[in-house]
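Fold Annotation — chain and its backbone

Fields — amino acid sequence, structure tokens

___
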Amino acid sequence: MKQFKNTTTIFVLSDIFKEDEYKKILDKSWKVTPYKIVNSFNKKDYLDGKYSFVELRGLKRIKGMKSGGTVTYLYMYLNVFMYDVEKLKKELKKKKGAKKSKIDKIYRKHQIAISRIDLFPTSDFIVTALTEDSEDIMRDVYTKDCFYTYELGFLQNFFQKLNSLIEKEEIYWMYEDDFTAELKKLKSKTLFVPSYMKTMYNPFKMTDSDKRLEKVKKEFSEYAYKYEFQDDAVLNERILKGEEFYYLRYARVNSQKFIHIINSKTGEIIYRNYKTGFAYNIKGKHFKELNKSIKKALKK
């Protein structure tokens, strides 16, 4: 962390937003290092040990099954890292003239991982990505709107939390269940739910459908307190204006589910629940667990 704090952080982000839009949210949320927003990124230009990086990353893994079939796993995230420059340069020198795929592998090998922010891909992107090679997937990621959770307000809150953790040099394990005392405020405050949560995913057809809205409402009815669906664009605009409220952030990574409640002003995660299993959508039982946590927070 001390080494990271002595770098300039290079942000390599999607073209779907303009550089000045990214600058506005980073000026509010990123204080831990100086930063630059870079569109055309050549790794060779940043190998003097003075830089850290935040870039979009995609990983597709195909796993064989005993039945003879295969299962494809797709991981899409914001990758935060540095390079072990000395070891990287040494190996690159040995492999001079190697194929691009080999060189890329060497770069990945010598990354020093700092953090990872998982993104929630749309069903359209999932279908496309399963048939594309890695190079095409990454081209799409940088040029198309591929994620429910890649919006300026959501990104600002992501970066606020990340900035806070790095400043404090804290470890924050992503596969964790916990809550803060602030959760008790949901007894009287409305929980805002982004409109992308109105859809339900069908893993057999690999599609989302808002035609199952009644099913969604049934699951949400288990929540014991007040909630309100709000259009994603409106929700993000409120975050950018600096309003303080609480909203649900849900991300699905294959069959893993990350259920978070966020303070829109601070970016703080006041509740998190990590789930695995074959259920691809948020369920009533998840809200029952949230109800229990709110009751526990009220006793603190």
Q: What stands out?
A: The chain has two domains: 2-167, 173-299. The chain has a mean pLDDT of 91.
